[in-house]
Specification:
This protein is 41% helix and 17% strand. The chain is α/β, with parallel strands linked by helices and 249 residues long. It binds NADP nicotinamide-adenine-dinucleotide phosphate (NAP). Belongs to the short-chain dehydrogenases/reductases (SDR) family.
């Protein structure tokens, strides 16, 4: 399949996990990608793997200058954008009573403000019919102890996607979110979790396993592709049934 021939995609947090799997998928289907991340070495390794269709920008989406650096790089290299994947995010999981103002500010800066301004700064570059996918989380659909701060930011970005679907619709732009479940990535590495926590998580999923980043990338690519042409303002949950199902029930 080559659904993205010569299209230009910006993927924040494209140096690892779901973002990197998405970048691989887009490049395999003919796109040019601009990926961001803070760690230069990880970014360089991703660019080396993805080849000359990929540019890496070392930038922190939690910093407004980092957001501008990413869109400036897109403008200078390609002059336009067909796809934005606002994927970079950070997890803060603590009991509600222990969350500090610093936790709050950092998490909101990356997960909400970063997504908000990545999309806003991308607007002048968006081609007619561009597509935007925001990476949210299954935790916006179910109460989950210790996830108050993280889940609220993910609910915020899904809500933003709905609003922007209305605002940007007249330009032919579609915007949706994806909500991954337990996905085995460096952010949530199955092998490094407490074995009891990992087993409990698997037990909540009918298939009895964590998801792979490629499985979320496939959903992002679907939403960004012509097959998703009449899907707008939605959240696509990619969680193996975690939210919807009581396993074995
Ligand atoms: N894994 C899961 O189970 C899961 C479940 C639901 C939702 N999600 C969401 O999926 C998204 C991707 O997570 P992942 O699991 O693929 O994690 P990951 O493997 O740790 O990748 C995160 C990517 O984002 C980049 N990043 C993190 N903070 C950044 C910042 N402030 N500025 C720019 N780049 C930043 C990282 O690079 P640097 O560290 O070098 O900056 C990396 O490229 C996140 O939004 C996360 O909330 C994940």
């Amino acid at each position: 399949m080559s659904r993205f021939t010569d299209q230009v995609a910006l993927i924040t947090g494209g140096s690892s996990g779901i973002g990197l799997a998405t970048a691989r998928r887009f490049v395999a289907e003919g796109a040019h990608v601009v990926i961001t991340g803070r760690d230069r070495r990880r970014l360089d390794a991703a660019v080396a793997e993805l080849g000359d269709r990929c540019v890496g920008v070392a930038a922190d989406v939690g910093d407004p200058d980092g957001v501008d650096a990413a869109t400036t790089a897109v403008r200078e290299r390609h002059g336009r954008l067909d796809i934005v994947v606002a994927n970079a995010g950070t997890g803060t999981f603590k009991p509600f009573a222990e969350i500090t103002v610093a936790d709050f500010e950092r998490t909101v800066a990356v997960n909400f403000r970063g997504v908000f301004f990545t999309i806003q700064r991308a607007l002048p570059l968006l081609a007619e019919g561009a597509r935007i996918v925001v990476n949210a989380s299954w935790t916006l659909h179910r109460g989950n102890a210790t996830a108050s701060l993280y889940s609220a930011t993910k609910a915020a970005v899904h809500n933003l996607a709905r609003t922007l679907a209305a605002e940007l619709g007249p330009r032919g732009v579609r915007i949706n979110s994806v909500s991954p479940g337990y996905i085995d990535t460096p952010m949530y590495p199955e092998a490094e979790l407490d074995p009891a926590e990992a087993a409990a998580n698997r037990g909540r999923v009918p298939a009895g396993r964590f998801g792979r980043p490629e499985e979320v990338a496939a959903a992002i690519a679907f939403l960004a592709s012509p097959e998703g042409s009449y899907i707008n303002g939605q959240d696509l949950i990619v969680d193996g049934g975690l939210v919807a199902v009581v396993p074995g029930g």
